[in-house]
Structures
1.
Amino acid sequence: MFEKLSYIMLQQYWWLLVAVLAALFIFMTFVQGGQTLLYTLGKTEEQRDLIINTLGRKWELGFSALVMFGGALFAAFPLFYATSFGGAYYVWMAILFCFIIQAVAYEYRKKPNNGLGEKTYEVFLMINGSLGIILIGIALGTLFTGGNFVVNEMNLSHWTKPTYGLEAVLNWYNLAFGFMLFFLARIQAALYFINTIENQEITNRAKIVLKYETWIFLILFSYVIFSLLTMVGYNYDSLTKIINVENQKFLHNFIAMPWLGAMLSVGAVLLLWGIGSTLWKKSDKGIWFSGIGTILVVISLVLVLGYNHTAFYPSLVDIQSSLTIENSSGSHYTLIAMSYVSLMVPFVLAYIAWAWRVMNRDKITIEEVQNDAHHY
Amino acid sequence: MEHLDPSLVDWSRAQFALTALYHWIFVPLTLGLTFLVAIMETIYVKTGDIWWKKTTKFWMTLLAINFAIGLATGIIMEFEFGTNWSNYSWIVGDIFGAPLAIEGLMAFFMESTFFAIMFFGWDKVSKKTHLISTWLVAIGSNLSALWILVANGWMQHPVGMHFNPDTARNEMVNFWEILFNPNAYSKFLHTISSGYVLAALFIISVSSWYLLKGRNIQFAKRSIMIAASFGLIVSIFNLTTGDDSARQAALNQPMKLAAMEGLYDGKSSAPIVAFGILNPKKNYLNDEKEFLFKIEIPDGLSLLGFHSIDAYVPGIKQLVLGDKEHNITSAAQKLSIGKKAVTALTNYKIAKKEGDTLQAQSALNIFEENAKYLGYGYLEKPEDVIPNVPITFYAFHTMVTFGFWFITLFIIILYLAMTNELEQKRWFLKAALWSLPLGYIAQEAGWIVAEVGRQPWAIQDMLPVGMATSQLSSTSVMFTFWMFAILFTALLIAEVKIMITQIKIGPEEV
C-alpha cells in the first residue's frame, strides 16, 4: 500500500504525523498548566490533593506523547533530530531536566519520608509546568526563526554559538511563542478542572483564571500569528533544492494552501468557544472545544511550517544548511516501513479514548481521593 | 568526517554510561514486578480472596515508586542519542530511529494508559477489566524492552542496511532482518529474564525481612513461595539465554568474548575461567601469564561459544595481529582498507560537488571495494580495537557468579519452605535479604559487559564512538554530566527512603 506512494508523499505524510503528535502533546500540556495553578486554585491541603490527583491520572499520557514526538522525529526526520538536539544542547537538556523532575513528583510528593519534602516536589511540578513549557515553546519558535547551525557535506552538523541554543531566549518571537504555550496550558487546565472536578471553589477560581489569562493568551497568540504572516521564510526550489529567503513566506503558504488557513481559523474559534461557553453559558464541556481547537491550530501551524517547499528549520549561519522535509528525512524504505507501523495509531488513540472515558465518567471529589489508598 | 575531541568523547560516554546505569537500576524491577503483580491479581480474581487483593496492592505500591523514577531516568535515554550522539543519529538514525519510535507507539502509550487504570481504576472498571489492564502494563513494559533491545541488538550486530554514499549514512534495506536479528532476541530474552530474576529477589528480600522481624508471616511466606518458584524458572531460562548471548558474541563479537574471558592467545578446546585474577602486566604483545591465579573448566569456552569442545576461540592477539591459519584479518589491514574507504568517500563527495562525473564514479568504485571496513578507517591504531579487558572480564564473572548463586538461593528457599523450616533458618533469611544488592550488581555488570566489551564501537565494526558524538564543547557535556549525577543521586536516595518506609509500613496499611 505505502510502497505506491512517492518519496515526497511519504515525507509529507510523516510531517503530518509529526504535526498530529505535536498537537496531541500541546493539548496534553493542560497537565503542566494545572501544575502551575496548584496554589492559585487549591487553597487548602485537600483541594491541592484533589488537583494533583486529577492531573496525576493524565500526566503520563503527556509524557508519552513527548517521548513519541521525539521517537517519530528520530525515525522520520533523523537530520532534524541530530541537528537540533545535538546543537541546541542546553535548551533541550533544560527541557529534559524539567520533565525528569515531573516524573517523580506525583508519586513521591505525599509519600512519607520522601527525602526532599512535599514542597520540593511541588516546586518540581511548578518548574515543569512553567519553565518546561516556556522552553518547549521557545524551541518550537526557533523552527520559524531559525538556529545557529551548519550541516556539512557529510550531513553532520554543529552549532556555531557557545550558548548551544540558549541564545533563542533573546528572540521576541520565540519568547512570545513560549509564553503563549504557557498561558494556553493554564487556560486548558482551568477548563479541564471545570470539566473534571466536583468542587465549587476550585471551579470558581478556575473561571477567574480563564477570565483574565485568556486576554494575555490572545495578545500573545495574535502577536505570534501576525508576526508569522509578515516574517521572512525560507523557500526551496523543488528541482535544484536551493534554498532562498522569501518575504512573507508563511502568508504565501496560507494562500497556497487555504485549507490550512481554514483549519487555523476553525481551531481558534473552537478554542474561544470553549472558553466563552464555560464563562457565559456555564458549560463544563469547554475543554473539548478548546482541546480540539488547540489540536487544529497546532496541526495547521506545523503543516504551514513544513509544506509548500518551506525550510522548517532555517539555519541563520548558512542558509543552504537549512532543513526541509526532503533533505532531513529517513530513506524511502524506512518511511514505507514506518508508515505501516503508523497504522497502529488509530488503535492506540481508540484505547486511550476508551480509558479516558472510563476514568473520567464521574467527576472527581475530595472524598474519592481521600478514600483511594493509592492517592498521590 | 573528522575525529572529535577525546575528552568530549569521554564525557559523552561517561554521561551515557551514568544515565544508562541509573536507568537500569529501576527498569529490571519493573519488568519483573509487573508480571508478578499481574499473577497475584489473577489469583485474586480467580479466588475472590481479598487477601490477595491486599497483597497485590502492596507490591503495586512499591512498583509505582520504582516505575516513576524509571520514567524519570528513561526519558533522557532516548533524547541523548540526539543531544550527545548526533553524528550517530544521522549515520545510523535511518535504522536506529525506527525501533525507538515503535517502542513509543506500541509500548509507552499502553503502559501509561493502563497504568492509570491499574492504580486508580479499582472502583471504576470491572475486576476483569482491571486485571487485563494490569497484564497490559506488564506486557507494555516488556514490549518496550523488546524494541529497545532490537535497537541495541542491531548496534551489536548490524544487519539489514547498506551505506549510501550520497547521504553519507547507513540506510535500512530490510526491516525484518533488523526485527529478527538473532542478537536482538538473545539480548531481549536474557535481559527480561534477568529482570524477572531481580523482581523475584526483591520480593524474597522484602519477605525475608518480614520473617526476620517476625511480622506479616503469612504474607511473607506466600509471597516468598511465589517469588522463589517464579525465580527458579526464570533464572534457569536466564542461564540458557545467557549461553545464547555468549554464542552470539562468539559469532559476531569475538573481541568481546576474548575480553570477557581474558583470552589473549587463541586456542582450540579453550577452557573457561570459573574464577581468575588477571595479570595487570599482561598485554597482547608480551609473553606474561594471562592470570595471576585461575580456576578453569576445560574446553568450557569452546563449548560455550561454539557448542563444540574442539572449537578454536581466537584471542585478543589474533584479533589484532591477524591469523592466516584461522582466516582472521589483522586490525592493521582492516584500518588500511577502512582509510581507503574514508578517502574515497571524501573524494566522491568533492567530485560530485564539482560535477566531475567520471571522477565521482571512480571514487565510488574504490569506496564500494573498501566499504566493508569503513568504520575501521576512523580508528587511529590497530590496538584501538581492544576494549578494556579487566572491566569486561570482572563484570562478566561477577554477573555469572551471582547468577549461579541466585539459582541456588531459589532452590534452597523452595526446599526450606516445603519442609517448613524457613522461619527458623535466620542466617539463611539474612543471606536472602542481602542477595538483593547482588541482584542489582549483576544487572549493572551485565550491561557493562555488553557495552564496554564492544568498545571502541558504537555500531560494531561500523562506527567507532569517537566518530559518533555531537560536536559540542566538552565543558558543556561535563556540566550536564554533573547535573545528572547530582539529580539522579538525589532521586535515588529519595526513592530508596520511600521504598524502605513503605516496606516498614507493610501490607496491612494498603
2.
Amino acid sequence: MGGEMMEEEKEPEKEVNGSEIFKEFKEYSVVEFFKKNRQMLGFAGKVRSLTTIIHEYCTNALDATEEAHILPEIMVKVEELPDEHVKVTIQDNGPGIPPSHLGKAMGMMLAGTKFHRYMQQRGQQGIGGAGCTLFSQITTGKPTRMRSGLGDGKVYECDMKIDVKNNQPVITNQVEFMGNFRGLRVEAEFAEVKYDKSEHGVYEYLKRTAMANPHAQITLIEPTGEKHVFQRASEKIPEKPAEIQPHPLGITTGDLVDMAHRTDSRKLSSFLTNTFSRMSSAKVEELAKLVPTVNFEKHPRDLKWPEAEAVVNSVKTLKWIAPPTDALRPIGPDQIDKALKNILAPEFVSVSERRPKVFRGGIPFMVEAAIAYGGNSGRARSDEGRGGDIIRYANRVPLMFDGGSCAITEAVKNIDWKRYDIRDFDKEPVTVFANFVSVHVPYTGTGKQAITMEEEIVGEIRYAIMEVARDMQVYLRGKVREMDKETKKKIIMRYVKELSADLADLAGTGAPADIEKKLVDMIETKYEKIEGEAEEAVDEVKEVEENEKEE
Amino acid sequence: MKKKSEKESSSEVLGKLEGLGRDMLKEIDVGEAPTFECLLRSRGNILFDESLGYIKLGEKRETRTFLNVGQAKKFMQTVAVASKCKKFLKEDSHTSIRGLFYQLKFTLGDSVDEDLFSEQSESNPLVEDLEVALDVKREDLNLNTDRKGVVAGNLVLKDKFGGATDEIDCSKQGRSGWMIPSDVDNGMDFVSVDADYVLVVEKDALWQRLNEDKFWKKENCVLITPKGQSSRGCRRLIRRLADKKLPVYCFTDCDAWGWYIYWAIKTGSMNLAYLGSDIATPEARFIGVTMRDIVDYDFLGKLTIKTKDVDLKRAEEMLTYPWITAHKEWVEELKTVLATKKKIEQDALQGPRLSFVGEYVREKLEKKNFLP
C-alpha cells in the first residue's frame, strides 16, 4: 500500500518524509480487503464465480439441516436476465435463521458460526453467505433478498447489503408475516458470472454434491427452464460431526497466535493444556525446555509471533499420541453405493472400506474411494463416447477446480489402469470417486480446491482406488467370460492375418496364406474349449500388486 | 539361466529367432495352438543366488497361447516384435526400443479398427520377454539403450559399426574419455587390456579430477564412471573386464544412494534380474567413502552433510536385502547412517587439496581397506 502512495508523488527528486507519505494511509476493513482480493473467495472467472456462489449457499443449507437433524430439500434456480445479469434463487427446508442473527450470518464477513470451531464440517471459511451478498452488491449494486422461517408460523423477509467500510449489515424493507414456511430462501442478482454445463459448472457441482450426500434431495432449474431432480437415495441423516480439540501437530503459527489471543486461560501453559488434544502438563514442561526463551507462565495474550513460531517448530520435534479417530465422519460405503447407483445408473459399483490413517506424523484422515463402470459413469466426450472421470471431495464437498495439482488426481494418474483391464482411462465409461475425510484438510491454496500431494496421502488414496479397481476388473473379466463363443472367435480372428504374415517372416519359411488357413480352421473347431482363463488373469494381477507392496 | 558365451554372433541370434518361429509353425502343422514360453519376470520369480552372488530369475514359467482369447493379442504382438528384430539383424541396422515401437505402430487393417501397438508400454515388456525366452540381450537384437558412462585407461578395443572398423585407444581420449556404448559385445573386441585393476568412480566430477591427475596412467588402472546409476552397457563392460581377471574396486559417495550404485554393479538389480550373470560382478569390492572414514580422516568430520529422507528410506530398504545384511560391515555402515543422519560426498575428499582424492584411493588399495 505504501508503494501505491509513492506513485502519487509527482516530483520524484524531492525527498519526502515518512509522515507525509503515510498521511493518506488508512486502515482497510476486512470487507474492503476481500473486495480487492475477491479471487481469495473463489470469485475468479465467470463460471467459477457462479459455482462458488451455489457452493456457499448449498454447504450452508447442508450443514444447517444436518445440525437440526432434518432431511434436506434444496432447490436452486438460475435465471438469465438482460445485460448478462444472472439471478440465483436458493431455498432449503432447514431450521431457518432467527431475524436477530440474519444480519450477522449473511451481512457480515468472518462472523459465521464455523470460523472458530474445530470440527469436520463442509464449509470452513466462515465467509460464505456474506461473501455472496458482497459479490452481488459489488457487481450489480443490488441488495440480496432473504426469507427466513423458523417453522413457528412467522416468516421474516428483508433486503441485505453490507456497509463495506465497517463490515456491518445494512437491512432494509423488513417485513414479517404469518406463514408455514420453514428454512431459508435467498434471491440475489449477480453480474460477471456465467451459467454453462461444463465440468466446472453448477449442474456438475450439484450432481456431485448429490453423490456425496445421498440423504439430500436437490433440484436445479436451469436458465432454459429445464428441471433436474437429484432424488434422495437414503433416509439416513449423517451423524453430527463431533467438536474435538485440535492436535498439536496440525497447528500453524497463525492459528496458535489467534487462539492464544482469544482464550480465557490466564497462563500460556494452561492455555496449551486446555486447548490442545494430547497436551499434558508433562508435555508442556518438555516444550518449555526446548524453547527456554518463552515464558510459559505469562498471559497467552502476550504471546508474540516469533515465540509462537518457536513453539510450533518444537512441537514437531516431540513425539505425540495420535489424536482420536472417532471425530472422522465418512459418508459410509452403503451410502456411497446407493448414491452412485442413484445418480449414475451404472452397470457396476464398488466402494472401498478402509481404516483411518495418519499424515504428518499425527493427523488422522480417511479415504473413501469408489468406482462405477458403465451406464452414465464417466464424462461425455466430444466424439460422443464416454471417458474416465475423476470426482474429488474433501469432507463431501466437491472439489471442482485445480484438479491438476490435487493428490486425488495424482493417485489416479499413478495407477496402471491396464492392469485392471481399462485400456485407456480417458476412453472408458468409468467414474472414480474419492472423498478425503479429515478435520484438517491440507488444501494447496486459499481456493480450497485441491489436496496437497503428500506422499502418505497420495499413497493411501492410490491403494483405496486400487482396491475398488480390482473388484471392477473381476466384473469386467466376468463380462469377457460370459461373451458368447461367437464373440470370442471374432476377437481371435482379428489377429490371424497379421500373425500369419509375421510368423512366415520370422520362421523364414511357409506361406502366410497357408498359415492363415490352418489357424482359421483351428479356431473354428477349437474355440469352444476356451473357458476359465479369466480367473487366472485376475490372480496374476493380484500377484503383481502384492509384489509391488513388498517393494 | 545358463552361462552365456562372451558374445552371441548375429547369425546365432538369427538362428534362435527363426527357431522360435519354426517351433510355432510345427505346432500349427500338427493342429495345436502355437505357444510362446518364457520365464516369469515378476517379483515373485526374482531371487538372490547366494553361491553365485547375483540376482537372477527363478524357475517359474509362463506360457502364452494364441487360441486363448485373453492372450491372443499379446501373442501376435510378441511374434511381430520378434519378426521385426530379425529384420534389423538381417539389415545390420540398429534402433532404440522407441524406434521399434514406431515401426510397429500401425493399424491391423481396413476391416479391423485396432492398432498392432498403440503405446510403447505394450512393446517394451515384450522385448524383455524375447530376451528371456531366447537367452539373448536386447543389444543382440540390434536394439540400443541410452549410452551412459565414460572410460579411460590402457584399454584398446576394435569397434565394427556401420560398415567401418575403428580401433579405439582409451588412453588417448584426452579430457573427455571414451563414452561407453550401449552394446559392448556385438562388433566389439578387446585388442589389449594392459591394466592392474578397474576403478569405478560414481561421479563424473571425480572421474575428471582423477583423469586430470593422470591417475590411471600412474596407477595403471582402467578408470570408469557410470555417472550415477550404471547403464546396461557400463555394467557389461565392467563384467567383461572382470572376466579378464582384473580386480574391480568401486568408489562412491558415502550415502545409501552411492552404496546402492555399488550393489547394482556387484549383484545386479531386480529390474534386470533376467540378465543375471551378464551384468553382475560379484568380485567387486568397495573402497569408500565409508562412515569409518570420518573417524580415520579428521577433516572429513567437518565436511559431512545432513541426510535427506530419501537417503534414510533407501538405507532402510537396503537393510531388508538379505544379500546385503549377510555382511555385518554393511549392516554397521547402514545403521550408522540411520543413527547419525549424516553423509559424505566423494567430492569432500578434495577438502585438504585437490590431489588428495588420488592419495586416498592409493592408501585404501595399499592397506587393502575394502568392504565386501
